[in-house]
Design brief:
Blueprint lengths: L2 H15 L25 H16 L5 H14 L2 H27 L3 H29 L9 H9 L8 H14 L2 H31 L27 E4 L6 E4 L5 H11 L1
Antiparallel strand pairs: 1-2
Helix pairs in contact: 2-3, 2-4, 6-7, 6-8
């Protein structure tokens, strides 16, 4: 067995011997902050929670992904009887969650409900943006081009004064504004070089995305028009207007151009 397996078996025996079972503990919800009650843990998360808490508290130097994979494998190997306490506790907590959520919705004012809805929308938008960024990183999208100030800031950020990141950025911006034009030209040239780098890398990356069928990630995609589309403008069809008096035929425009028809009638009169 490797080091990770030994560690996993070690904490497994410790937790079992000390009879730590998070499945039978009561779950309480706090609505004092004005927010909705938290969702309860599932049966699997109740089983995995003591292992993850132990790793987090003790700061064990192991890969989190490896531990979670082993915990999931151990959960799959459990019998239905062994999973039953965790699943029953999850169902009980789910029922409490529904009751708490019903009480919470009843005491909401329209303004508070609208605020919570907007907060939920913003949270979902942030999650979608994070997933999108993570996906683009996995697909190898080139890093964004940097401006002259970004290059200056990255070079001097460590030595900048300020307790917080915002304070450092503010001080760096003041230092940047005090630079002479000749000093800024160095960073401006680096920014131009980075612009060429970004353009070339994006071109190669987008060509690769087309090859793998991810045209949706390409910038400024041209929407292809359907082949059988008919143009509305300029598609005039000549029709014949027959005069009742002399029986002559007068060419006119398509229906919709009423002026030509009215002119033909005036001519007949």
């Amino acid at each position: 067995m490797n080091k990770v397996t030994h560690f996993y078996l070690y904490i497994f025996l410790i937790l079992r011997c000390t009879c730590v079972c998070p499945a039978v503990r009561e779950v309480s919800f706090s609505t004092s902050s004005g927010g909705p009650p938290k969702r309860p843990l599932t049966g699997y998360l109740r089983y995995a929670r003591p292992y993850l808490l132990y790793i987090n508290v003790c700061h064990i130097d192991v890969r989190f992904v490896e531990i979670t994979k082993k915990i999931a494998q151990e959960w799959r190997l459990l019998s239905p009887e062994q999973k039953k306490p965790y699943q029953e506790a999850a169902l009980a907590a789910r029922q409490v969650y529904k009751e708490e959520m019903t009480k919470f919705k009843e005491q909401l004012t329209p303004a508070h409900a609208a605020a919570l809805k907007e907060e939920k929308r913003q949270k979902m938008a942030r999650r979608r943006a994070i997933r999108k960024k993570r996906e683009l990183t996995m697909l190898g999208k080139p890093k964004r081009l940097r401006s002259a100030f970004n290059i200056f800031m990255s070079e001097h950020f460590q030595e900048a004064t300020g307790e917080s990141t915002q304070a450092k950025m503010k001080n760096l911006f003041e230092d940047w504004s005090k630079l002479r034009t000749a000093q800024k030209e160095v960073y401006m040239q680096l920014a131009e070089d980075d612009k060429i780098r970004y353009k070339n890398e994006m071109k190669s990356w987008e060509e690769h995305m087309v090859e793998v069928g991810r045209e949706d990630l390409i910038r400024n995609r041209k929407k292809t028009k359907p082949k059988n589309s008919v143009k509305a403008k300029g598609n005039k069809t000549k029709i014949k207007v027959v005069s009742e008096s002399n029986g002559t035929e007068t060419p006119a425009s398509t229906p919709g151009t009423r002026e030509s028809t009215s002119r033909a009638k005036k001519t007949e009169e």
